[in-house]
Amino acid sequence: MTTQSVEARAAVPAPSASRHAAGFWIVAAAFAVEMAFSSAPTPLWTLYRQRDHFSTMMVTVAFAAYAVGVVVSLFLAGHVSDWLGRRRVLLPAILLQAVAAVLFLVWPDLPGLVVARVVSGLSVGMATATATAHLAELGAASRPNASPNRPVLVATAANLGGIGLGPLVAGVLVRYVDGKLTVPFAVFLVLLIVSAVALALVPETVAIERGRTYRPQRVAVPSTARARYFAVGGAAFALFAILGLFTSVAPAFLAAIGQSSPIVAGLAAFLVFGGAAVAQIALGRLPLARQLAVGFTLTAVGVVVLAAGVLSSSSPAFLAGGLVAGAGAGSLLKGSLGTAATLAPAGARGEAIAGIFLAGYVGLALPILGIGFATGLGVSLAASLTGLAVLVLAIMAVASATLRRHPATA
């Protein structure tokens, strides 16, 4: 009896480890909800256009507002959890996303949509790096002997998987409920509030540094191997343009060729970001050069198939191209970030990675805005999307050739 009691006590994790283990999954779930909400409006843009009769250009403006919010927050607040604490930044980020949900509900006109998207972007910029770091620290505290890749895989699944699930969930809700422009946001508002309550119980993993002088996140280009750095920055620009396409104007194209179901619009985004998540997880252990090579190849093939789908008005080809391009983008993003980190000195890696994200979010906004302005001038959406495909292929060709001309040093 005594032996059984000792064995039972030994089998129970220490309270701290158990609390950190629970906190790990709470943060993962909250991170997934955060990212899912950021992309949830994707299948709703067509409904807003039908209701308010605004143009494709207005959709792209609302979408670009999100990218602006992310960039501003990424450089002003994305790094402050290093000395303010993870939970103390992540919890306000989730609450800020809840504010965005409220704005979608109470101010559904175009100005309100733009403001809500900016607020949503601000939240994502605060949450992304913070949640990823928090998962790494909670994972190390709860399972010190486990592989450090485990938190990275969970963070990837929550981030890209969440972005993929958001439009799919919203699309299903829109298909089967009456309040098509309110119920999805109400559902996510509840999930965000529940996430915030749960996050309040998660252990903090960073001690507050009193008296630290605040400064925005800096962007630094490594002084050596700048050609390689700018090449992967260009790759980030191109791949984010493809990801942005599927969370902005892709539903309008699908509707134009007869696929107006919000579930199809949500499925398109789910395929792209799901493919990116699976590729990052499956190919993440390849050498950086191989990750980049696979990423360039898959993205190029996917973009070609996607363009063929646009020119032939084929939704299966468009969706298949998105899936392949998404997988390539996932591998290419991981390889680009890893390359930037290896090119920079140890003390400037965060600043070098910030530069890659800056290039990426510029790529998320500018090409999509270009599509909006082109359609406003009378260019067809199909022609605009084909032009985007050509631009992406050209940038990737230059980036790939530059990397071949300037190979990594041993």
Automatic annotation (TrEMBL):
Domain Major facilitator superfamily (MFS) profile: 1-405
PROSITE patterns to which the protein is assigned, alphabetical: MFS (PS50850)
Keyword entries, A-Z: Cell membrane, Membrane, Transmembrane, Transmembrane helix, Transport
Membrane topology of the entry: Multi-pass membrane protein
Any one GO molecular-function label of the UniProt entry: transmembrane transporter activity
Matches recorded under InterPro entries: MFS (IPR011701), MFS_dom (IPR020846), MFS_trans_sf (IPR036259), MFS_Transporters (IPR050171)
Listed transmembrane segments: 21-37, 57-77, 89-107, 119-140, 152-177, 183-208, 229-257, 263-283, 292-311, 317-340, 352-375, 381-403
Pfam family, one: MFS_1
Name of protein: MFS transporter
Organism name: Microbispora oryzae
